[in-house]
Prior knowledge:
The chain is α/β, with parallel strands linked by helices. It has helices spanning 2-27, 41-54, 67-76, 90-100, 131-139, 148-153, 174-186, 188-193, 210-220, 230-235, 255-267, 303-317, 334-343; strands at residues 30-36, 58-64, 81-84, 104-119, 128-129, 165-169, 206-208, 224-229, 239-240, 242-244, 250-251, 289-297. It has two domains: 10-110 and 292-346, Periplasmic binding protein-like II (D-Maltodextrin-Binding Protein, domain 2, 3-Layer(aba) Sandwich); 113-267, D-Maltodextrin-Binding Protein, domain 2.
Amino acid sequence: MKSSIQKIILILLLAGLAFVFLQGLCCAQTLINGAGASFPYPIYSKWFNEYAKLHSGIQINYQSIGSGGGIKQVTEGTVDFGATDGPMNDEQLKDFQTKRSTNVLHFPTVLGAVVVTYNIPEVTESLNLNPETIAGIFLGTITKWNDAAIKATNPKVKLPSMDIVVIHRSDGSGTSYCWTDYLSKVSPEWKSKVGKGTSVNWPVGLGGKGNEGVSGQVKQTSGSIGYVELIYAIQNKLSYANVKNSSGRFVKPSLESTTAAAAGAAKNMPADFRVSITDAAGKDAYPISTFTWLLIPEMMQDKGKLNSIKEFMHWMLASGQNMAEELSYARLPKEVVAQEEKALANLK
C-alpha cells in the first residue's frame, strides 16, 4: 500500500514538472533591446506594442535617448539595434566594424518633418520663415521677434518687440543632424561657423533633452523658438512655421509635403540607404524633412534574436506602414520598401 502511494506521488510530481517545463516553452520570450532617436519614438512605441500583441513570444524594449546615444550603444553592443535620424558617417561605420567584427546596416522606417516651433503670446498665425531668417535666429544675429527680416515675410502679423529665446537639443541628436544639415545647405555662414552633426557648438540658446525636452521648453517659455519632429508640436499644441523651400514657396510641414521631399531620393536611393533629403527640389517639398533609420548589425551570435528582428522588419515594411500617418509620419515610398525587402537578406 505504501509503495503504491509513493508511486502515485512520484507520478504527480513528474506530471507537475512536465507541466511547468511545457509552460516555460510556450511562454518563453525573445527579448530585444533597442535605443536611440526620439524623433520616431511615438511610431516605434506603437509598432513595438502592436507587434507584441500579434507575437506573444517577442518583446521589444526601446529607450528614447537620442540618435547619438543609439549609435554609441549599438556600437558598444549594449543593445540589439540602434536608431538614428542622421546616418552614421564613414568614421562611425569603421569604428563599429572594429568593435563588433561585422557591419551595421541602415534601414529607413518612416519619414518625418522637423518643424520650426515657437511660442509668441497673442500670435496664433502660422509664420512664414525663409532660410536666411531661420539661420540668423539660430546664429544669434536676429534677436527680436519684430526684426525687419521676420516682418518682411509676415507683413500682416502683429509681432511683439520681445527677445527671441532659442531652444536647441542638449543631447546627441538625429533631429539636430537634420536641422544642421539643412542650415548648412542654405546658409554659407552657418556652414562655416557651425556646420552639421548630431552635436554642434551652438552659437546661442538653451538646451533641452530629446524632442520631448525641446517641445516642453518651448511650451513653457514665452518668446521661444525651437525645432522638433512634427508630432511633438501637434501633441503639445505648439505653433509651427511654414518654411520657404528651394522653389521659393512657403510650405507647411505635412505628410504630403514630406512625401514630396522624398520623391527624388526614392528613385535614386543608394544601396546603403544613407541619404539626405533636406532642401529637396520640388515646388511642394517641405525643406526640413528626413528619413529615420534602424541600425541593425549584419551578423549576430543569437540567430533566434536576429530572425525575430527580421520578421519584425518584414511586418514593419508592410502592415506597420499603415500606422504611420495617424502619428503624422509619412510612409516609405514603395521603391524604398522594395529595396529594403531585398536588403533584409543580408542579415545573417
